[in-house]
Design the sequence.
């Protein structure tokens, strides 16, 4: 066994140029797998981060039925108990309460339908990027009840600037009566999420509760976990724990299912890449092995003539393919890591591009993981060995007399 | 059927090939017995069936008809691993030049068959040193084939063929790619080894020098044994 491994290793370097080129082809394939995988993982993380850290949160709690009806009266049930539970939950990094209602905003120049969020300015900072997205004016203070934040596109449409007066009209909970409140534009934000920038208004939680006639109550609790993977790994457990008192707890996968579908699609992209790379490997290995086979027919004939069993000859060729795979994997890992690291200096700029309702808010950077440097190389190695069984079987079955045509 | 004195015994051996729908009768019923210790040359023009006949008596090919015994075993009925093992233990092969494994050094080439036989490393080393000394290649153990001359390579091949002390050494045109001086020297060496060890040598050749050195000459024409001459 050791002898055949040594023989195989020496054999693959008999034709250094061919071995290098074959190793390079397989290595480029592996490098492509590492590169694509690293960027897809990076893109997935970026999409999730863009979707969850801008405003959504990684999970939300609502009163049962609120999401379907948007009924302002359906506020979180036993909110004090829920917030106590969240306060004591080691997996929860931060949470904030919000009200959510539909209404209109009017200014002297125009009127628009909007979503009005009542937010608790201090705790909202930990959940969303509204404060970081201010381009004019200032973020809300907790006691700034007469102030509203509007998106840049909405401000442009209404032709308003910081300090201008606007009127927000909503239906009150219970009675359904219209409530109109005068605000001044306290700040203008640009979050690069179309629906937020063009049709959303933020006011303080207290102002919103007052307008809606739901003092002390909220429609939504948005949550950030300590680990970003928590929602994916233990989302079901979280939902079960917090879906109580008539409330419903959902992670981002349920809140934005279209994003989950897109992420699932990326797994198909990886699978397609893997299939293409493995097709390259099949042709590379079979071609190289058969070339070597035809060049060395006489030599194989000699080996068989002097008493090498067909199975040993087959093993030798599989060992040669395995050695070639190790060489190619080394090339691929170095190339893959090098190219990916090099490209990570700049990242991929998809800022502002919207996909599945999520807008990329930052550059995409590749993310390395063990799968790229353990699973893929092992797959390439194993696959190469399996593929080589074809030429190896061919060699072990060849007629010794024909192989030795030039001799005996 | 087999006489224990005979290393090789063939009875009515035929071999047909099909080439582009034409049947070629390469060997047409040869009966031949080669006794232990003989130094035999099988000669004949191209296409006479020499190579095919050697393939048949060494188990590299199977006859279309007839029987072959080698060292008392009916090898035309063997196949697969059993035939491989039989060749490994009973036959030493010397082919035309350039038949060493290029990635193995001289010692590894010579000990290869012993490795297949499962001979212990220590004994392999001793036997390799002894046989390399016998063929005049002492100290060449670590050299690779490309670093030695054609004549030296053929000496290594002879050492490889003989190191396992096989019952039969088959040599196909062993001098074909060698100059006359080297050929002469190798033939003298093989003749001497034949006398010293009693091993049987069978050559397929065109080379008059080999024919001159052979104790017995079997002439084939069109796949038939037309003459069988034993020299005094």
Sequence:
């Amino acid at each position: 066994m050791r002898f055949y491994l040594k023989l195989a290793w020496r054999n693959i370097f008999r034709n250094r140029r061919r071995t290098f080129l074959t190793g390079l082809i397989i290595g480029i394939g592996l490098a492509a797998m590492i590169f694509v995988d690293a960027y897809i993982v990076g893109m997935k993380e970026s999409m999730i981060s863009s979707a969850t850290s801008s405003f959504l949160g990684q999970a939300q709690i609502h009163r049962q039925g609120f999401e379907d009806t948007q009924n302002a009266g359906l506020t979180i049930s036993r909110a004090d108990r829920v917030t106590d539970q969240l306060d004591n939950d080691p997996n929860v990094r931060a949470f904030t309460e919000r009200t959510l209602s539909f209404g209109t905003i009017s200014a002297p120049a125009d009127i628009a339908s909007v979503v009005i969020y009542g937010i608790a300015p201090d705790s909202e900072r930990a959940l969303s990027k509204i404060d970081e997205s201010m381009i004019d004016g200032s973020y809300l203070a907790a006691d700034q009840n007469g102030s509203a934040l509007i998106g840049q596109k909405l401000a442009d449409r209404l032709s308003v600037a910081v300090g201008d007066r606007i009127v927000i009209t909503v239906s009150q909970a219970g009675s359904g009566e219209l409530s109109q409140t005068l605000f001044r534009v306290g700040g203008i934000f640009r979050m690069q999420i179309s629906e937020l920038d063009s049709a959303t208004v933020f006011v303080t939680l207290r102002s919103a509760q007052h307008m809606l006639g739901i003092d002390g109550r909220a429609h939504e609790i948005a949550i950030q976990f300590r680990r970003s993977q928590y929602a994916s790994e233990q989302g079901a457990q979280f939902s079960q724990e917090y879906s109580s008192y008539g409330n419903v707890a959902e992670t981002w996968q349920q809140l934005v299912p279209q994003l989950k579908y897109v992420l699932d699609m990326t797994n198909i992209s990886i699978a397609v890449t893997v299939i293409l790379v493995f097709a390259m490997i099949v042709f590379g290995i079979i071609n190289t092995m058969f070339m070597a086979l035809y060049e060395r027919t006489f030599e194989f004939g000699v080996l068989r003539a002097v008493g090498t069993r067909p199975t040993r000859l087959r093993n030798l060729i599989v060992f040669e393919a395995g050695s070639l795979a190790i060489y190619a994997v080394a090339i691929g890992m170095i190339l893959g890591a090098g190219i990916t690291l090099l490209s990570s200096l700049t990242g991929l700029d998809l800022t502002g591009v919207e996909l599945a309702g999520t807008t990329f808010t930052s550059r995409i950077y590749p993310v390395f993981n063990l799968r790229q440097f353990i699973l893929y190389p092992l797959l390439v190695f194993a696959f190469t060995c399996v593929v080589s069984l074809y030429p190896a079987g061919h060699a072990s079955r060849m007629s010794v007399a024909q192989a030795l045509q030039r001799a005996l | 059927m087999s006489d224990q004195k005979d290393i090789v015994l063939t009875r009515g051996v035929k071999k047909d090939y099909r080439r582009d729908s034409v049947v070629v009768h390469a060997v047409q019923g040869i009966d031949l017995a080669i006794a232990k210790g003989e130094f035999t040359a099988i000669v004949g023009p191209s296409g006479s069936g020499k190579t095919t006949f050697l393939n048949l008596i060494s188990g590299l090919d199977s006859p279309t008809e007839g029987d072959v015994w080698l060292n008392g075993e009916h090898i035309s009925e063997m196949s697969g691993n059993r035939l491989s093992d039989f060749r490994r233990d009973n036959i030493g092969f010397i082919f035309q030049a350039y038949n060493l494994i290029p990635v193995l050094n001289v010692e590894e080439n010579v000990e290869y068959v012993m490795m297949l036989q499962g001979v212990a490393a220590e004994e392999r080393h001793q036997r390799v040193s002894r046989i390399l000394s016998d063929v005049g290649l002492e100290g060449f153990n670590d050299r690779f084939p490309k670093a030695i001359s054609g004549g030296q390579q053929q000496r290594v091949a002879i050492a490889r063929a003989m190191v396992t002390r096989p019952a039969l050494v088959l040599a196909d045109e062993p001098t074909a790619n060698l100059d006359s001086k080297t050929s002469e020297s190798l033939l003298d060496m093989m003749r001497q080894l034949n006398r010293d060890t009693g091993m049987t040598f069978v050559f397929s050749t065109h080379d008059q020098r080999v024919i001159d050195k052979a104790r017995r000459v079997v002439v084939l024409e069109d796949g038939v044994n037309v003459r069988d001459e034993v020299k005094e």
